[in-house]
Design brief:
The protein is of the alpha+beta class. It has four helices and three strands. Strands 1-2-3 form a three-stranded antiparallel sheet. InterPro entries: Znf_PMZ, Znf_SWIM.
């Protein structure tokens, strides 16, 4: 259905589309996105007895392609004639959990001691088997029978 010289309403079996030939748009948006007229636009162009190729965007035309590549493309020397340059070192992710502390800048002074954490003050070890100070039950050299005798004898 023709609204005026430039606007059409194209009706299909299940849908209808509005085509604006002056602004080169269709509400299916295919013509807007690609620059190539969609089927709705082509039927509107045929109603005007015009050629659909006149409505294709200039990017797709042979004359534009020839204009882009009319200048000579200069050759490039082989890789052996290229200037030598130092490549940046390869970045490798180190295994393990990332560091918690932030990385200091070069001009920042390093921290001498970590004042945010308290050190663990370890009590003297006392074996639960033989009751001797200096080691624990796991590292006790006494057999289990001797340790029980010693534990009974000390209590």
């Amino acid at each position: 259905m023709k609204s005026d010289d430039w606007h059409f309403q194209i009706m299909g079996l299940f849908d209808q589309h509005n085509v604006d030939l002056l602004n080169r748009s269709c509400n299916c948006r295919r013509w807007d996105l690609t620059g190539i007229p969609c089927i709705h636009t082509i039927s509107a162009i045929w109603c005007r007895n015009e050629d659909p190729q006149d409505y294709v965007h200039d990017v797709y035309k042979v004359s534009t392609y020839l204009r882009c590549y009319e200048h000579a493309i200069q050759g490039v020397n082989g890789a052996e004639l290229w200037l030598k340059c130092e490549l940046p070192p390869k970045y490798e992710n180190k295994p393990g959990r990332p560091k918690k502390m932030r990385r200091r800048q070069l001009d920042e002074p390093p921290t001498t001691t970590n004042t945010t954490r308290m050190k663990k003050c370890q009590k003297s070890l006392k074996c639960s088997k033989c009751r001797i100070v200096g080691h624990n039950a796991r590292t006790c050299n006494k057999s289990s029978g001797q340790a029980e005798e010693m534990a009974i004898g000390t209590s």
